[in-house]
């Protein structure tokens, strides 16, 4: 029997994203024009499908605008200066290098 719940990695429609985030569909479409980082996958008929990282970005933008008092221009500058995905910390780089050396030696 199939579950009504989607997996965390599943794509979401604009209606599902709107319901989950509280952001109206017309606002989501507007944000796509204002934030180049927000690019949902489009299929036939221009239907939008949001990846989990798109939903996280919508939540971040909404929080910055609604709760932290940023303007659209302020959020645009913030997202340009601080991308959502940060570089791994130095200790993770060191572990990665250690594993790469171990694999090379074997």
TrEMBL record:
HTH merR-type domain boundaries: 13-81
InterPro entries in alphabetical order: DNA-bd_dom_put_sf, MerR-type_HTH_dom, MerR_fam
CDD domains documented for this protein: HTH_MlrA-like_sg2 (cd04765)
Keywords from the named record: DNA-binding
Descriptive protein name: MerR family transcriptional regulator
